[in-house]
Amino acid sequence: MSKKVLVAYASKSGATAGIAAVIGDELRAHGHAVDVRAVAAVRDIASYDAVVLGSALYIRRWRRDAAQFLRHHVGELRQRQVWLFHSGPVGPDKNEEQTMPPAVRRLAHEIGATPAVTFAGSLEPDTARGFLARRLAGGNLATDSRDWNKIRAWAIDISAALDATERSTWHRPSGKQTARHKHPAGHFLG
């Protein structure tokens, strides 16, 4: 039986939206019902079994609307499987994991999500917005660094975790727990 999954994203120049679309396509290909939506357009998550949330990462900061989404839905997200990703690095550090901003890290911990997976971004002269992005896009950092194989593999892992929990009795216990147990998909229960 398939799960209903929301893939929500906050994108500045479209690269994160493109990653979200590929994640959604991969989850659909594995039998799940998926909505891919800009996070600003999401009003309610009650109908979803799981949420994948992605944000563009600029100067080590998430887009404001992605962080607000986490804050606004923290109670509901605690009751769902949640995966986070951010995208943005280009250039020499494009393949290095980036730490989550402190406020996002606290919210991820509160909802029981693991740290965000980092995907390389894209910096193209025709889509760069803002002075700094346009300036960088005019130099040697201008490229699409997204690793589509890595993105698809991560989405397949999410699908496998969703399928595994369909066959088990996965749930998030209510209330505070003293011990946290790691779920096979990598996030913590409790």
Question: Which key phrases capture this entry?
Answer:
190 residues; alpha/beta; six-stranded mixed β-sheet; two-stranded antiparallel ribbon; 6 helices; 10 strands; globular
Topology readout:
Elements: E1 4-10, H1 15-29, E2 33-38, E3 50-58, E4 61-62, H2 64-72, H3 74-77, E5 81-87, H4 102-111, E6 117-119, E7 122-123, H5 131-137, E8 143-144, H6 148-167, E9 181-182, E10 188-189
Parallel strand pairs: 1-2, 1-3, 3-5, 5-6
Antiparallel strand pairs: 3-4, 7-8, 9-10
Biased composition (Basic residues): 178-190
Protein name: Flavodoxin domain-containing protein
GO molecular function: FMN binding; menaquinone-dependent protoporphyrinogen oxidase activity
Tell me about this structure.
One of its GO terms (molecular function) is FMN binding. By secondary structure, the chain is α/β, with parallel strands linked by helices. 34% of the residues lie in helices and 22% in strands. It is built from six helices and ten strands, in the order βαβββααβαββαβαββ. Strands 1, 2, 3, 4, 5 and 6 form a six-stranded mixed beta sheet that branches. A two-stranded antiparallel ribbon has the order 7-8. It has a two-stranded antiparallel sheet with strand order 9-10. The radius of gyration is 16 Å and the shape is globular. Mean pLDDT is 80; it is low at 173-184.
